[in-house]
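User: Let's play a game. I give you a shape written as tokens, and you guess the letters that built it. Ready? Here's round one.
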């Protein structure tokens, strides 16, 4: 695999523990299961902006209920296969 003229770099074998990311996330989330929700897909009308265009709050839907979330900062991420529907 790395014995290829297109590969530019080095491969090292390290004597370190490999991190099991799914297990780590499960362990970190375990104490908070009652406040972790899978939310429905957001729509543009769920994003609320002030007059200057700054995001002030979002509406999220989960389990048939809508909640308003306000924060000083929002971080949005998307995984592989995400397509924007704007």
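Assistant: Ready! My guess for every position:
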């Amino acid at each position: 695999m790395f014995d290829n003229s297109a590969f530019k770099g080095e491969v090292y074998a390290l004597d370190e523990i490999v991190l099991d990311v799914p297990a780590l996330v499960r362990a970190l989330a375990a104490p908070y299961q009652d406040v972790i929700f899978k939310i429905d897909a957001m729509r543009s009308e769920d994003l609320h902006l002030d007059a200057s265009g700054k995001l002030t709050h979002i509406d999220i839907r989960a389990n048939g209920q809508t909640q308003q979330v306000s924060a000083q900062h929002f971080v949005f991420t998307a995984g592989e296969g995400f397509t924007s529907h704007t």
